Amino acid sequence: MSDSSSSYAPEVARTKRQDEQLSSVLLRLVKGGPEQQAVEAGEIDAVIDYSGSNVILFPAARQALRPAAAGESAYEPVANSLLAALTRREYQQLTPSLEPVTLTSGAVLHEPGEPIRFVYFPVDCVVSLLATPKGRRTVEVGLVGFDGMVGTSLALGVNVSSLRARVQIGGTALRMPQARFTRTVQESQTLRHELNLYIYSELTAARQTAVCSTFHQIEERLASRLLTTSARARSDRFYVTQESLAGVLGVRRESITQAAIGLQRRRLITYHRGNLRILNRQGLEAASCHCYGQLSV
Ligand SMILES: [Zn+2]
Question: What's the predicted TM-score (pTM) here?
């Protein structure tokens, strides 16, 4: 299914006929009975492709995710900064290879030592890049949102991941097969330039993470991390578990619990059953270590 759906990828210039074809393919995944009725009534936005661990959106849901002005132009950049930097011609050439996928929180996109099969351009999801030292807790060395991509090592000629890429905040991304991405990097000077800048910012953020985890206290680190996540997710509300934050910051879960209680007492955030909301952004910035600005876009 994932193979057949990839031919329906472009987010722009999609024709009504293509949408009908996509719906037809997706409907074949539905078992019938109540599920069939719910789909026909428009009550379901997506179906799960278990073979590919993806959620595939119906055309109406994809339409809802497009920028408001998408109908005004055949070329409306998708909400990912790297792709938006491409020329119109380059972007149009790429769109058949970009498959919209919905990624669930906790999903692992790449594991260390494994070949990279796809690259991902997040739209509204956030992906954590984790170092996984043997016998130690994982620690985050990068955070990817709408401003970047997962799989940058391919641009440097390395097709094996050195990190675990795990979805932190679920949402939509555009994915592209490895071979197509490698070819595009070779062909597009614009993309190479954007990737060079982005990879440099990744390196800078990784250095800052080393400083942060060595010298700063857990409560101010948590404040920084929440602000960075908010910037990447473009929202003051998001879902993130304590286990996940502990894995990201390389500390025990109890440390996250205590730090979150501290931020809640100061009325900077609310945090209940994974649902986090930033109440006072300025206050949270003041409570954070100053790494926040250097880890963000
Ligand atoms: Zn810090």
Answer: 0.69
The last residue of one of the domains, among 76, 107, 137, is: 76
Do 100 and 190 belong to one domain? yes
Q: How many domains does the chain have?
A: 3
How far away, in angstroms, is 289 Cα from ligand 1 center?
5
Nearest in space to 59 (alpha carbons), one of 51, 72, 50, 70: 70
Rounded to the nearest whole angstrom, what is the distance from the C-alpha of residue 253 to the centroid of ligand 1? 18
Domain that holds residue 83: 78-211
User: Which residues are found with C-beta within 5 Å of the ion, ligand 1?
Assistant: 212, 216, 289, 291
Confidence of residue 74 (pLDDT cuts 50, 70, 90): very low
